[in-house]
Amino acid sequence: MYWAVLLVSAVLEAVWATALSNGDYVIFAITATLSMVGLSVGMKRIPVGTAYAVWVGIGAALTVAWAMIAGEETVSVWKIVFLTGIIACVIGLKFHKSEGKSVEAPLLVGGSGAVPELKPGAVGGTGASGVETSS
Asked: Distance between the two ends of the chain, CA-based, in angstroms?
């Protein structure tokens, strides 16, 4: 279900981008809102990086494809090859299984979200006048 919602929101992204370029601001506002809501729903179960890449990739590819169909953009073999590559990458993201490895975050003083403790003089020394000097 989350993937379906994400794909619909990606299609809506292409609609709002086209509407914006044509000056259809009511259609733009409605479809942009629905597209963002769909992206948000998709991100509840799909990792944010994957969801965003799929949303942008599909939306961009459809926007260019529609512009070529409408005659607003020139058609070329290379554009079709590259758009096919974007779609292939999105399909790869859908079927790629992560290995569940996580990146270890560095330990911070005082627990999560704390700023590491700096020792006095760590950046430079201070003279008798209190002015920092470089070592």
From this structure: 60
Q: What is the 3-state secondary structure (H, E, C) of the chain?
A: CHHHHHHHHHHHHHHHHHHHHHCCHHHHHHHHHHHHHHHHHHCCCCCHHHHHHHHHHHHHHHHHHHHHHCCCCCCCHHHHHHHHHHHHHHHHHHHCCCCCCCCCCCCCCCCCCCCCCCCCCCCCEECCCCCEECC
For the record, the structure tokens of 92 come out as 């790869």
Strand-pair partners of 133: 125
Please tell me the pTM assigned to this model.
Answer: 0.67
Question: How far apart, in whole angstroms, are the C-alpha atoms of residue 44 and residue 32?
Answer: 19
Mean pLDDT for 85-94 is 91
Question: Of 10-19, 73-82, 108-117, which range is least confident?
Answer: 108-117
